[in-house]
Amino acid sequence: MKTPKQASIPVQNVQSRIYRIRGQQVMLDRDLAVLYNVRAIALRQQISRNRDRFPLDFMFQLTDVEVEILVSQNVIPSKQQLGGFKPYAFTEEGVAMLSGVLRSKQAVQVNIAIMRAFVKLRHAVLAHQGIARRVEKLEGKVDVHETDIRLLVQDVDRLKKQPGPDSPINPSIL
After folding, report:
1. Could you tell me if 117 and 95 are in contact, meaning their C-beta atoms sit under 8 angstroms apart?
2. pLDDT of residue 172 exceeding 60
3. In angstroms, rounded to a whole number, what is the distance separating the alpha carbons of residues 40 and 77?
4. What are the residues facing 61 on neighbouring strands?
5. What is the rounded distance in angstroms from the CA atom of residue 4 to the CA atom of residue 1?
């Protein structure tokens, strides 16, 4: 039995094209076009022909403010260079839906690589959250220990200020 051919697109190449916009991990139409080896306008045409496959939770068009932020971060060229067009952002589900619209072998390989990249990022986020919870727990323990130590130091200071016993202490009393 033959095993399926592995995606030839490096996951790191895909991960570098995933952005966080509106609290979601998304990919921009122009980056997807590069990965799929099609022109961005051809990708957008396919999407407009199949608009019912892309509800707002699968794909959305960026606002002017979001475009300016991405331009300032050198993620995308200026709106003038984009011909005044505002890019579309695709969620993981939207990228998966593209596999039904773009049917080339390249599209299949790209989708496999993209799904792997999204899964890898999700695992990294979950691992980060687990580490953050453990650090918070440790910080709480450290705070408790700091309080205990501060109280012990205060008790020792108080004992130092009290006058000592007049005669030696009999060890059998202790």
Report:
1. no
2. yes
3. 14
4. 88
5. 10
